[in-house]
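User: Can you recover a sequence for this backbone? Please restate the input before giving your answer.

Assistant: Of course. Working from this structure:
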């Protein structure tokens, strides 16, 4: 009897902990909803105004206890993939100044920040922070990842490398067409 209960208990603990959130978010291939928020200096932030590059949206909240760990991991991935555009988006009621006051204390952080309203969670169909979305050049969802555990970051790295290889291959074929 004891042996049969142990796997059930382990499954409950693993899949209900914050680091192992259930699959959530928009399906791959779905157009990403527009986001309207704010950059520093009161400048408006919109998804449509971002570059036509592959981009990573790193949704977080300074009101969570692990946001610093998550942002440090995002910063590390950003440095490895300079051709990609990374935006860390604080979701919730915080102003840009309040959010910046919190993240300035971090030793390692991404280069670009924005704030967006709480309704962003509904638009992107996620419940738990952090939540990471990889978008293609046309702002369609390539992959999404819940949590800040290493498995999510390994998957993000793999997806980014695949996008880079794909982009390099397209460039090579473009050269052949000339």
């Amino acid at each position: 009897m004891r042996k049969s209960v142990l796997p059930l208990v382990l499954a409950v603990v693993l899949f209900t902990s914050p680091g192992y959130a259930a699959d959530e978010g928009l399906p791959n291939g779905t157009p990403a909803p527009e986001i309207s928020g704010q950059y520093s200096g009161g400048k408006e932030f919109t998804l449509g105004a971002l570059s036509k590059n592959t981009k990573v949206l790193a949704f977080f909240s300074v009101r969570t206890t692990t946001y610093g760990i998550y942002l440090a991991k995002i910063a590390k991935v950003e440095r490895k993939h300079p051709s990609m555009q990374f935006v860390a988006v604080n979701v919730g009621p915080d102003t840009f100044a309040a959010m910046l006051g919190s993240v300035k204390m971090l030793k390692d952080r991404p280069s670009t920040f924005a704030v967006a309203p709480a309704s962003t969670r509904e638009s992107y169909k996620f419940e738990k922070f952090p939540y990471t979305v990889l978008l293609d050049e046309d702002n369609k969802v390539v992959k999404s990842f819940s949590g800040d555990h290493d498995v999510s970051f390994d998957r993000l790295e793999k997806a980014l490398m695949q996008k880079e290889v794909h982009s390099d291959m397209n460039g090579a074929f473009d050269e052949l067409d000339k």
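That completes the design. The CA atoms of residues 75 and 110 lie 4 Å apart.
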